[in-house]
Structure prediction request, 275 residues.
Amino acid sequence: MARALIIARVGLRSIHNAWIERGAARDFDLYVSPHEPVPFQSEPQAGIEVGPVYPEIKWRALHRLLTDWQGWRNYDFVTFVDDDVLMDQKTWNIFFNVVRRRNAALAQPALTHDSFWSHILTLRNANFLWRETTFVEAMAPCFRVDVLERLLPTFPLSLSGWGYGLEFVWAKRLDYKDIIVVDATTMRHTRPVGGNYPPGLMDSLCREMRALMQAENVPWLLVTLAGQTRDKGLLPRTSATFLRLYLEGYWDMAKGDDKFFSGLLQAQTGARFGS
Prediction:
């Protein structure tokens, strides 16, 4: 049995097959959790299982799945990935190797710069292998299994099931420790954020997020705390070298956008961690 598990919430348009190279060595299994009837079939010899349809929205469905099915407890790490994420098997293998060596509590692959994205912090920084952060996105969070056991009761806190605000709750409950974005491995988000939402849903989800964060007394923190370099070791955010490398690592994103770096620096001044 592989040591890592990917659980994919999928529909008919899913691109999860791009994650698998059949016949090649793989350090993870794949559990496909459909939200609608799909033609995909289980492939036990390939470590692929297709479960029953759970029609609920993502995080409510995942809470029910992990309550009904206990197979996830046999793995070291469990990752929940949206079906519009593009990443190949070799990159997934490297990602899980990095996460395992770092013994991360919570992690995600960084996003490619041509992805549809919401938070700069989740984009790949060219100057780091991985970064310690206060946030990973609900698009593809990877939980160490003991952490998943601890945080599983938070999933129903998202009343709609969309998960807005859960990431901030998870990070605070982990006291912002051992949370990483892996820049050495990138995924591409292929569809616009909220692109298929009906009118008014985004506003409703933002209100739900604010209510959840207020109820949990959770701050809005999108801070990179440290970065692991190839040749300079782990640099804390208080290091001048870190700041230079951090800004340089997003240079191609900032070209022609005067507000990019100001937004990046503003995010880095999270009150919880000082200047």
